Amino acid sequence: MSPRLLVFGDSLSFHGPDRAEPADEPRLWPNVAAAALGGRADLVAGIGWTARHAWHALTHDPHVWTLLPHVDVLVFGIGGMDTLPSPLPTALRELIPVLRPEGLRRRVRSGYLRAQPRLARAFARTLPGGGPVALPPRLTVEYLERTTAAVRAIRPGIPVVASVPPVHRAAVYGPVHPGRPAAERAIRAWAGPAGVPLLDLRALVGEHVLGGHGNPDGMHWGWEAHAAVGRACADVVRGLLRAG
Question: Where in this chain does the record put each SGNH hydrolase-type esterase domain (predicted)?
Fold first, then answer.
């Protein structure tokens, strides 16, 4: 069997050590996983995507609908961005790119980028749970469950793989990450009863990222980490397909 993977991802799925890469770059972890399985990966991803974006893509993108009859495994390479500090409510932050006139947009964006690290550190010290995140854990789990149920309504019994949020050392976020533990607990609590195996991204890339071996932005990975995640994903998928 040459399995076809449908991968919902954030920028960690298509960003390498220097830049964002085309989705067919063979060193990206979804493609590493697919190659190890003798199959292919269909990557549906975007910068800053959370589990809510995956749900939106599934329900609004007709290209995704064309993939569903043909894929053999659903992989959630998503959830990490959900955990990042978000001093400004996500809905408002996502409106910055559409502000007009252009000069206003540049000033607002520049001001937010200057304020975000300071606010993230201050909230991490003073607010319960470290302050607001891009998507609260209960909503991350809700959208993962919704997406899983919707795909399985079309493809009953399709194997599903999800992931535990990775770590970062990005200066643009403080660098603090107080929302990560709660998100991991919520995802593990959902995945166990749902029978969804997890890729532990913290274990797989933590030393790589925190040791400064990835992208200089402190968020994205080098090729070594992509290879490790891809191999781990292939191992999990291989076991699921054998069991099925």
Answer: 7-224
Residue 133 gets which letter from DSSP?
A: B
Q: Rounded to 5 degrees, what are φ and ψ at 213?
A: -95, -5
Domains of the chain: 4-84+133-243 (3.40.50.1110)
Beta strand spans in 134-243 (E) = 160-164, 198-200
Long-range CB contacts for residues 21-28, cutoff 8 Å, separation at least 24: 27/223, 27/226, 27/227, 28/226, 28/230
Q: Which residue, chain included where needed, has tokens 């559409």?
A: 98
The number of residues in the chain equals 244
Q: In order along the chain (244 residues), what is the average pLDDT of each group of 10 residues?
A: 95 98 98 98 97 98 97 98 92 88 94 93 94 97 98 97 98 96 98 97 98 97 98 98 88
Phi-psi region of 79 (alpha: psi -120 to 50; beta: other; left: phi over 0): left
What is the C-alpha end-to-end distance of the chain, expressed in Å?
12
